[in-house]
Write a structure and sequence with these properties.
- The complex is a heterodimer of chains A (about 375) and B (about 325).
- Chain A has about 375 residues and is α/β, with parallel strands linked by helices.
- Helix content of chain A is about 35%, strand content about 20%.
- In chain A, about 45% of the residues are buried.
- Chain B has about 325 residues and is α/β, with parallel strands linked by helices.
- Chain B has ten helices and twelve strands.
- In chain B, β9 and β10 form a beta hairpin.
- Chain B is globular.
- The two termini of chain B are about 25 Å apart.
- The relative contact order of chain B is 0.15.
- The chains are: A alpha/beta (about 375), B alpha/beta (about 325).
- At the A-B interface, α6, α7, α8, α9 and α10 of A face α7, α8, α9 and α10 of B.
Chain lengths: ~375, ~325
């Protein structure tokens, strides 16, 4: 197997805990992960606030350095890349942040955010090339270029702004896009279109995606593999269909049971999905399962050591002693059980993007009628 | 033309209604002109009913919440219409009369309400302040028991009364806000996106709490938000807002099973589920119209796949096309 594009090796990140500060927060604990660029994949990272999912994204982007372990780009440590490698890294790995309002400078027209990467990376030699690149990228995400170019950020909806960020990433033809809660600040009716545009980048341009979210429903819709985090530790990972439909780890069961499904006939169990916490289990050791205090199945062993990864099914692992009959698998091998790691070539499915293309047509009509209203 | 349709618009007639909103108009007067945030809204709330209002941002749903409490601040103004609460028109009350109604008869659990707690006051003091404001003698014996009861009703320990807000988690603070909202047993509780800042497990806890206290009290609830899943699981009836108007009202099962308005249909169709993987991710194409210059005729005609010629000029009226299922769309006019 070739060198992975991005690899995290036994990464731990703690905050605080300086010389005079006794309080130390473990944001992410001993986590390993690989992304192989030759096999475009869509992986979701799911967890509640404080689960470490954004810390992981920032580690993979090189925005923070790990406390222990290392993050590698093409086999080289991200902390001491040569300037050439660094530039290539900034091109290969793109990010889309949560807030489509904050990333734009309100004084510049939309064109600025698209021109900057073209200029910085010398993507176009002529003016025509520049225009073609921008038009192609915008149309891929279902936006008519003439409708947004020359406008200011405040004139566009959150959904449009977020899709322009997707188009901006596409300009650079990256190998990996990390999308950190890209739709959580956007209206529900616009979410599907943004996720559709991200998915098209994966299917049509072979770009891998890491989709970070607290929303299991959209994670289920877009990804192949999922990783569920709880307080800085991996609780469960694997094939998204299996994990969501038949969760193993008690935390994942709680999470799935808490989702209000948009169907009045479906139950909404919340905590009733798993039951009440087991209660006192005695002295808590140095290592323990983070979910113990909320877990109805907790046993004395759960507070004495932290559970390893159990390889429960072909495409999934769970970090819970309930599955101690299953063989264990080292953290560093975790991604080998992913569906994307065991597939040859691109994803085979029949996801259609005609909705995005239809958007191009509808927006012409609405823009013409909107301008007639302005008179 | 528009004025004419508004005045002839049918109102949902409810005799046993706790709250009845009739032809409500709320405009924000800006330098560029009047923004018609709420443009002729009618609905009624039965006793003990849970009613949902959904819509995208800027559809006017939060403006409705604030105008029911008469908390609209300039440049916003209630331009017309009535809000009957237990038979009294709130719009015509004086400021002082309205102040007494708030919390006592109609209470609000706001979006991010947990940030509305005073950070330097103990939880007990925040209750005391509310009681004092409504002329309740806080020195009388038993007041601490009452606060303790309120806290335990929302599933918190009585000791929480002596804590400061920063000692509580987001979900606990939101439950304190629910306890505050029910402290004077109001007949209507307005919950404006009460869980939008919370994680899904905590969201369930908060909504479960709200449902329990609402049922105990026999109060009606208006839940405002854009999470269709939350609506499906919590409300009895649902109203869909679009560009300042209510375009559809139905029982929650009918709304999800058989939406009538094209906007409602697209909204339901765009919902991701955990059952099947959709082979196309489709949102609602186009953008929300500006409320400064709303489109003529039906506000949805610029995005509607079933648009007809007269949709551009004639504003459809909300009417009952099936039992308990109201829709404002020209498609259903012949059906009636």
């Amino acid at each position: 197997m070739s060198t992975p594009l991005i690899e995290a090796r036994n990464v731990t990140k703690t905050f605080g805990g300086g010389l005079f500060d006794k309080s130390r927060t473990v944001a992410l604990e001993d986590f390993s992960f690989k992304i192989d660029a030759d096999n475009p994949s869509v992986t979701s990272i799911v967890g509640e606030s404080g689960s470490g999912k954004t810390t992981l994204a920032r580690l993979l982007l090189g925005l923070v350095a790990p406390t222990e372990g290392e993050v590698l780009y093409n086999g080289k440590n991200l902390e001491n890349l040569s300037s050439r490698d660094r530039k290539q890294f900034l091109r290969d790995v793109q990010v889309i942040f949560q807030d489509p309002f904050e990333v734009y400078n309100p004084f510049y027209r939309i064109d600025h955010v698209l021109d900057t990467p073209i200029r910085n990376f010398g993507l176009a030699k002529t003016e025509k090339e520049r225009k073609d690149l921008i038009n192609e990228a915008l149309e891929a995400v279902g936006i008519r270029p003439e409708e947004i170019l020359g406008r200011f950020p405040h004139e566009l909806s959150g959904g449009q702004r977020q899709r322009i960020m997707v188009a901006r990433s596409l300009l650079l033809r990256p190998k990996l896009i990390i999308a950190d809660e890209p739709v959580s600040m956007v209206d529900a009716s616009l979410r599907a279109t943004i996720l559709g545009s991200l998915l098209r980048l994966n299917r049509e341009f072979g770009i891998s995606l890491i989709y970070i979210t607290h929303d299991l429903t959209t994670a289920f819709q877009v990804s192949e593999d999922i990783m569920v985090f709880y307080r800085g530790s991996l609780a469960e990972a694997g094939d998204v269909d299996q994990v969501v439909r038949n969760p193993e780890h008690p935390y994942t069961r709680l999470l799935v049971g808490s989702i209000p499904l948009p169907d009045p006939d479906m139950p909404w169990e919340g905590e009733r999905a798993i039951g009440r916490p087991a209660g006192e289990l005695g002295e808590v050791g140095e290592k323990f399962c983070k979910f113990t205090d909320r877990c109805p199945f907790a046993m004395p062993m759960c507070v004495q050591s932290d559970p390893p990864l159990y390889h429960t099914h072909e495409n999934r692992v769970s970090s819970c002693f309930l599955y101690r009959e299953s063989p264990t698998i080292p953290m560093t091998e975790m991604t080998s059980i992913f569906r994307s790691s065991n597939r040859q070539g691109p994803v085979q499915d029949n996801v259609s993007f005609d909705a995005l293309d239809a958007e191009l047509e509808v927006s012409t009509e609405s823009s013409s009628s909107a301008s007639s209203n302005d008179d | 033309m528009v004025e004419e349709t508004l005045s002839t618009e049918q109102t949902e007639v409810e005799t046993d209604a706790t709250l009845q909103v009739r032809d409500l108009h709320v405009y924000f007067h800006t330098a560029a002109g009047a923004v018609k945030a709420v443009n002729g809204v009618n609905f009624a709330l039965k006793k003990g009913e849970r009613f949902g209002l959904v819509g995208e941002s800027g559809s006017g749903k939060s403006t409705i919440a604030l105008s029911l409490l008469r908390l609209i601040k300039p440049p916003g103004r209630i331009e017309g219409g009535q809000v009957f609460l237990n038979g009294v028109d709130l719009v015509s009350l004086t400021e002082e009369e309205m102040r007494r109604k708030r919390l006592d008869e109609i209470a609000l659990v706001a979006q991010g309400a947990m940030n509305s707690l005073n950070p330097v006051r103990r939880i007990r003091d925040q209750f005391m302040l509310a009681f004092q404001d409504h002329g309740i003698d806080v020195k009388r014996s038993g007041i601490n028991d009452h606060i303790g009861d309120l806290l335990s009703r929302v599933g918190l320990s009585r000791d929480v009364a002596d804590m400061f807000p920063h000692e509580l988690s987001g979900g606990m603070k939101q439950r304190v806000c629910i306890a505050l909202a029910i402290s004077l047993s109001p007949s209507v509780i307005i919950a404006d996106e009460p869980t939008s800042a919370l994680d899904v497990v905590v969201q369930w806890q908060v909504m479960d709490t709200l449902r329990r206290v609402q049922e105990d009290l026999g109060a009606s609830v208006i839940l405002i938000g854009h999470d269709m899943g939350l609506m499906a699981q919590f409300v009895d009836r649902l109203g869909v807002m679009y560009a300042g108007r209510l375009v559809e009202i139905a029982k929650v099962k009918d709304m999800f099973g058989d939406p009538l308005h094209p906007y409602g249909q697209m909204l339901i169709a765009s919902l991701p589920s955990l059952e099947v993987k959709q082979d196309r991710l489709q949102g609602i194409p186009g953008i929300t119209p500006s409320l400064l210059n709303p489109p003529s005729g039906c506000p949805f005609h610029t995005r509607c796949p079933k648009m007809m010629e007269h949709c551009k000029t004639v504003t459809p009226v909300l009417q009952e096309v099936r039992e308990d299922h109201w829709v404002a769309c020209h498609l259903y006019e012949e059906a009636k």
